[in-house]
Every structure is written in structure tokens, then in C-alpha cells.
UniProtKB/TrEMBL annotation:
Annotated region (Disordered), positions in chain: 1-21
Lineage, highest ranks first: Eukaryota, Haptista, Haptophyta, Prymnesiophyceae, Isochrysidales
Tree of life domain: Eukaryota
Protein name (record): Uncharacterized protein
Family matches, as InterPro entries: P-loop_NTPase
Bias (Gly residues) ranges: 1-18
Amino acid sequence: AADGAEGGGRPADGGGGGHGDDDRVDAVVKYSDLFAATSGDADRRLRTILRMLDEFDVAGTTERFDETSALLMHTLKWDAAIAARTEYEAPTCAISFVGNRLPWYCIDRRKEAPPYSTERRRIRARICPDMEACARLVRSVAAADHALYARAQQRLKDDIAAAGAPFQATMQAFHEYKRRNATYWGLRKCSWVHRPRGPRT
């Protein structure tokens, strides 16, 4: 999705000068020539991608990972517990730099930090100040990816509906197993200690 892009906060129009910017724009144009909807054989590529997706017995998306996993277990007639995974919520960003504050792309989870929603808006604003412009750019470059995602999303919805009550029972068993057996681990902040090397032997 467009809001999941990583970057240094450059506006979507790619403004700026210098040879590096020209190279970056050229790379985007070349990629667009290969995969965007305006490419001469983009329709053929898209049909191939969607046909490949339709060959799979189960298709899903990462944001509905639990349902996708449970549907896989249901389709294979396996125990739902096999797919149940451990979850944890990190109290702070796992990436830190010695002697510095958290990187700008980390959500500050300390009690004195701004609310989560404020932190989320701050990060999104730096990555992409104009979400609509970013979304248009991503779709122009990765039209096939968007079509693939839409097909997988619809497949998951349709397959869950077709599976009916038996799948819902699998889903309930999946969540119940996680509730009773999954171990939740809290992350501890680590400190970096410099240990000078001795003479090589």
C-alpha cells in the first residue's frame, strides 16, 4: 500500500535537482515501462499474474494473516493449533542508536510520549506529505501489484464465505489455542558496551 512506503520524506513529485535525482527518475520510468498499465504488454503480464494466483488453493493478505492461516488449516484439514503463532507488542522501537534518540521512523511508546495516533501521523507525514499523490505514483509504477492484491483480497473473502460454519469453528479453535497457549514476551532494552579487542594471536 502507498502508506507503507519507506523513504526519507521526499514529496511524491520527486522535486529536486542533481544527477542523483535524474538517475532515480530514469529508474522509475524504466520500471514503469516494464510493469505499469501503460506498457504495451502490461495486460498480458497482468493476466499471467492473476492466472498464477488462481492456481493456488488458498490466497490471502498479510493484514488478515490469522484468517488466511486458519483457512489454510481448514482446507488441509489440519489442526488449527499448527498455525497459531505467538504475538507480542514491543514497548518501544527495537532499533536504537547508542547515545541518540529514537530514529524518526520509530513510534515512541514511552508514557511521556505523544499519543499513538499522533506519532503515526507524524511518521506518515514525513514519509509522504500528500498520500493521494503517493498512492497515484505507486499505482502508476505497480499497477499489477495492486490488481494482484485486490484479487487476493476478494479471493479470501469469497473463500471464507463459501467455507461457512465449519471454517468459523476452525477460526474459533485457532483463537482459543492462541489465548490459552501462546507465550507473550516483552522486549527488554539493551545497552551497547564497547569491549576493546586485545592483541591478535
